[in-house]
């Protein structure tokens, strides 16, 4: 059985649900977070053992596959087509279609459309928090007007 993801809430508390008996329990995961241990094996009171993976993020991420465009405002407005791989209320992760230089702390203008019934267009600025050859993680810069729409989209 694959490890299920469990979001760690403020105060280092996770709500763990047994996939067998559906019993839930609030657990402090501070000791595991300090040790940077993400995968845990849990034994439920029903005697079943299962695995969880701790997600220590402010916002839950949704895996997506959306086409978009990024313009690097820090590097002479270089434009690049991108494929968004995940999205949250706080930011996005994407793959650039072609290799290009992007650095941590670069400011990007990002535009894409959600794959909802309205194909809702999103345009925002973001700051690069992680960059490798083929993956870029960004944090949205400001609370935008699209956040309620994005929140609804993430729950669907």
Give an account of the 3D structure.
It is a single chain. The protein folds into 2 domains: 4-55, no CATH class; 62-155, predicted glycosyltransferase like domains (Thrombin, subunit H), CATH 2.40.10. It is elongated, with a radius of gyration of 18 Å. The chain is built from 2 helices and 11 strands; from the N terminus they run E-E-E-H-E-E-E-E-E-E-E-E-H. With 156 residues, the protein is mainly beta. The strands form 2 sheets. The chain has a 6-stranded antiparallel β-barrel with strand order 6-7-8-11-10-9. A 5-stranded mixed β-sheet has the order 3-2-1-5-4. 16% of the residues are buried. It has helices spanning 30-34, 147-155, and strands spanning 4-9, 13-17, 24-28, 39-43, 49-55, 62-72, 78-87, 91-96, 107-113, 121-131, 136-140. Strand 2 and strand 3 form a beta hairpin.
Structure summarized in a few sentences:
With 156 residues, this protein is mainly β. It is 9% helix and 50% strand.
Q: What CATH first level of the largest domain would be assigned? A: Mainly Beta
CATH superfamily of the largest domain: predicted glycosyltransferase like domains
What class, by secondary structure content? Answer: mainly beta
Largest sheet: 6 strands, antiparallel, barrel
Q: What is the count of structural domains?
A: 2
Low-pLDDT windows of residues: none
Q: Looking at the chains present, what oligomeric state does this protein adopt?
A: single chain
- Which architecture name of the largest domain does CATH use? Beta Barrel
* Arithmetic mean of pLDDT: 87
**Helix amount, in percent?**
under 10%
How many helices? The count is: 2
For the biggest β-sheet, the strand order reads 6-7-8-11-10-9
Which term fits the overall shape? elongated
| Beta-strand share of residues | over 45%
Kindly report the CATH topology of the largest domain. Thrombin, subunit H
Radius of gyration: 18 Å
């Amino acid at each position: 059985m694959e490890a299920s993801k469990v979001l760690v809430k403020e105060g280092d508390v996770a709500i763990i649900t047994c996939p067998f008996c559906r019993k839930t329990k609030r657990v402090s995961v501070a000791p595991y977070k300090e040790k940077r241990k993400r995968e845990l094996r849990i034994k439920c009171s029903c005697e079943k053992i299962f695995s969880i993976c701790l997600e220590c993020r402010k916002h839950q991420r949704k895996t997506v596959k959306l086409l978009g465009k990024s313009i690097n405002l820090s590097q002479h407005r270089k434009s690049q087509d991108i494929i968004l791989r995940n999205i949250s209320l706080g930011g996005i992760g994407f793959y650039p279609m072609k290799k290009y230089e992007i650095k941590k702390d670069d400011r990007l203008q990002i535009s894409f459309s959600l794959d909802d019934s309205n194909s809702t267009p999103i345009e925002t600025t973001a700051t690069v928090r992680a960059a490798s050859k083929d993956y870029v993680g960004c944090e949205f810069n400001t609370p935008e007007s699209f956040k309620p729409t994005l929140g609804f989209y993430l729950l669907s």
